[in-house]
Specification:
Elements lengths: L6 E6 L6 H15 L2 E6 L3 H6 L6 H4 L1 H18 L14 H10 L5 H13 L8 H10 L4 H8 L2 H16 L7 E4 L2 E4 L4 H13 L1
Parallel strand pairs: 1-2
Antiparallel strand pairs: 1-3, 3-4
Helix pairs in contact: 1-6, 1-10, 5-6, 5-8, 5-9, 6-7, 7-8
Amino acid sequence: MAAKLARVEFWYEFASTYSYPAAMRAGRLAGAAGVELVWRPFLLAPIFGAQGWNDSPFNIYPVKGRYMWRDLARICEADGLALNMPVRFPQNGLKAARLAILGAGESWAPAFTRAVYEANFARQQDIADDGVLAGILQALGLDPLDVVMRAYAPENKAKLKAQSDEAIAKGIFGAPSFVVDGELFWGNDRLEQALAWAQRRGQS
């Protein structure tokens, strides 16, 4: 019997702090592990709303928020990543997610995703700003007008909603999350575990 293809689904939200370091290292680590990485942008707002939250839990619980920012600073320092407080937290990642889900079918989602996270958490840019997103697309060699038109088309908007609904169906409650054959791993610090799990599944 042929071995299964080892693959990890990487579920991320552009407002998610811990998704920043995960996005910056996931592709490199997956490549080194020989595991296919599937980039799955989604929206956390419906999940949080179902819990009665209208804000990030890091804002709702200030002590937890202070810990998170210090913890993220340590992680970014260890990974060699710049970290500067965003212009607001959480930022609205809806437009970026629509672009990313389009890019997931056209191979440019990983580079776009990393650039958006850098804009948010390193360069203090507004990732809901059309000009910021257009600049990222242009830097990737893409035509911003064409890409934005296709990303905002009803069928692509519906695709993002369906993907966010799929996240809920998979039991995802936060970002970043990694899914391997239905097995859920939550958090940036579970990336290596998810990759190792996928490797074992691929060898079975």
